[in-house]
Amino acid sequence: MSLADQLFVSMCNDIIENGVSTEGEKVRPVWTDTGESAYTIKRFGVVNRYDLSKEFPAITLRRTAIKSCTEEMLWIWQRKSNNIRDLKSSVWDEWADESGSIGKAYGYQIAKKYAHHRAKDEDLGRYPSAEIREADGASYVFLDQVDGVRYDLANNPFSRRIMANIYNFEDLHEMHLYPCAYSVTFNVTTCADGGLVLNAVLNQRSQDVLAANNWNVCQYAVLLSMLARDCGMEAGELVHVITDAHIYDRHIPLVKELIAREQHPAPKVTLNPQVHGFYDFSPEDVIVEDYVTGEQIKNIPIAV
73 in a domain, yes or no? Predict the structure, then answer.
């Protein structure tokens, strides 16, 4: 059966049986239908490990829309957008203004350029954001966060400093929603045949487990796979660290029914073998086969 199912069931049982209720606390989220406070049962510091070399981490208890979550991930990481008009789904509509912007969040932060390294005689053609600027009396190559990660993976893969972080305190007041999944740290290991394996830690400050857990897991598994392909590596482990993993009180009956369902083998998820560059991928290049699942849960109440 799917390892992702087993981890999801174990996590949900742990939250329900051992979690702490926030009822009576001063909480930010409210239910959209009544405006009442939305309370949760939560666990602090949940860690799940997914080995992409063994299977793709999609749960089978219900279907995760893998192409749709890929589209959202590429909206942030590839198109570097903070405008919902660039996104097909409606998941961000609650936080967009009349222009479609979600403020200086997600893609806006990914696109910010920084002085990555001293300029030298090198080919920067693989890095669309590359720009030579003067800083502190020297010439630097400025890159955005995606190209910074790609450059380091190609040129210094064993660095322990390869990461992207979109929790920018300077801009928080101009974000319509603070980032939930806010940083990814990449780490390269060597396998027995000498090949390189790309691993990553996804840090998430808060997560609505029913609505978003496997959505986030799948989209960052796809991101890891695409970046591994981009730099000629194999995809390895995705470690998901959630500071506040919670189930909303209205979701508890839904979760109990969900985790009692029949589990199936994990689907086969691969990337189009003809595509190698990160910026060339589209959601249609994610090939999903043999995905057997339980019924979808419709009309999940969402707190905002």
Answer: yes
Backbone angles phi, psi at 18, to 5 degrees: -120, 0
299 domain residue, yes or no: no
pLDDT tens for 21-61 read 999 999 999 998 888 999 999 999 999 999 999 999 999 99
Query: Quick one: 289 exposed, middle or buried, by C-beta within 10 A (0-12, 13-18, 19+)?
Result: exposed
What does the alpha-carbon distance between residue 285 and residue 222 come to, in Å, rounded to a whole number?
10
**pTM across the whole model:** 0.96
Range of the domain at 198: 3-88+169-289
Rounded (5°) CA angle 184-188-192: 145
Which of 180, 191, 218, 231 is flagged as catalytic? 180
Q: How many domains does the structure of the chain reveal?
A: 1
Q: Residue 270: which CATH number? A: 3.30.572.10
Q: What is the pLDDT of residues 244-269, one digit of tens each?
A: 999 999 999 999 999 999 999 999 99
Active site residue 180: yes
